[in-house]
Amino acid sequence: xxxxxxxxxxxxxxxxxxxxxxxxxxxxxxxxxxxxxxxxxxxxxxxxxxxxxxxxxxxxxxxxxxxxxxxxxxxxxxxxxxxxxxxxxxxxxxxxxxxxxxxxxxxxxxxxxxxxxxxxxxxxxxxxxxxxxxxxxxxxxxxxxxxxxxxxxxxxxxxxxxxxxxxxxxxxxxxxxxxxxxxxxxxxxxxxxxxxxxxxxxxxxxxxxxxxxxxxxxxxxxxxxxxxxxxxxxxxxxxxxxxxxxxxxxxxxxxxxxxxxxxxxxxxxxxxxxxxxxxxxxxxxxxxxxxxxxxxxxxxxxxxxxxxxxxxxxxxxxxxxxxxxxxxxxxxxxxxxxxxxxxxxxxxxxxxxxxxxxxxxxxxxxxxxxxxxxxxxxxxxxxxxxxxxxxxxxxxxxxxxxxxxxxxxxxxxxxxxxxxxxxxxxxxxxx
Length: 431
Fold this sequence. Notes:
The chain has 431 residues and is α/β, with parallel strands linked by helices. It folds into two domains: 1-330, Rossmann fold; 332-429, GMP Synthetase, Chain A, domain 3, CATH 3.30.300. The chain has 13 helices and 20 strands.
């Protein structure tokens, strides 16, 4: 490998994948959960798709059956002397899982997070303001640590529940970072707060926004671009594997570090790999960060399309394939026979320029009927009753349901969202 830890060619990546898949397979055989599940697979033929797909897919439903001690007993193969730290899973549902990571895992993680800077175009002289949690969830602390090797400046700010939003805006105005690294929901919240306080972020120092940990829909991207006057990039990772890739200048998908992560798009029913361009379930096998918990074919729940080549013309475009998210972990409400797709509804709301933020809540009314309430915060200077009435009409016309609209004071939702790792925009409180 070259000094920057990038492989020299796609041919080298294929050789590394073959070598590292075999190593990951042998490690998995040491884990009790895999006992008897891999005996029928020839380790010399793992590059054959028909052989590889015989490996059982591992998913969150399996992990949720176990306590933390049971998880370690079933899937951890490292002893305590090898453990550097634990990573918390970032899912908003279910009991969180804490993944042990060895010292080698963390070294590779620093490389994988560190690749984002050059891929996105963040260089020495740039200063990043990171608003991810700095703690047991890996994104914030690994990302911040990786900046040092890249020669990039980093303000270790942390999430809004640790450093209040107004203090974050003051830091941005005072220290003038060129890059904001944040969940998209929090970046929207900061922009709403700035607008309420008469701060024009489009005239500020932030030229790029790097998002992760939440779906970045086209409407969110447009809203962030409009409110910050910045170019918005997406990256993709998960605690089970690490940071797996980033967008580059073409913004046409996530370049996957395929020398570090073997990825598949599979049919959710059969587990068979799908052809390029077809939407299916995303599965990943960590090739270098599975030294403590050797996951094979981890099903993240993401629905994606895979393409061998994207449009970016830099080294990352030359070396790495891309994935495009169709939608992240499908979610919907059903109200009186009508499906309300969460991703579609979020896109619909965020395209409304007078609405700053929202939350959809399903509950059972005293009458016994199910009710959908949309809680919104609106831009200053707007007539709240008119906005609410127009939104209710638009929702009825688009989704064929009649909602209640609740207009909130600016900042209300941010306080609610601050209780969670990710913004909880859809809540089901039905009895």
